[in-house]
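Progress against Task 2.4 (sequence-to-structure conversion) is shown through the following example record, which the project officer requested during the mid-term review.
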Amino acid sequence: MAKRKIYTDKFIYNACLLVTHDGMSVADASKKVKVHHTMMRKWINKAKKGSIKAAVVKESTLVSELESRIQMLQNEIDILEKARDILR
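Structure tokens generated for the chain above:
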């Protein structure tokens, strides 16, 4: 039995944009992203309801927060390394 593929919300959102934004047909878009056309139609219906976009926005917000936290920690590391070098 084949394993079920799990697609991220961002992948689904981008696949839906091929149809809703770029004007591609469902059949062509589903071939391009290598999913069955009925799955693509389900995704488009979910996207029209807004549930997929909300998940993508939430995910990108989290990524932004994590990136800023990484930058802050990198700055702290730089300060601590400079302090260590001074104390040597």
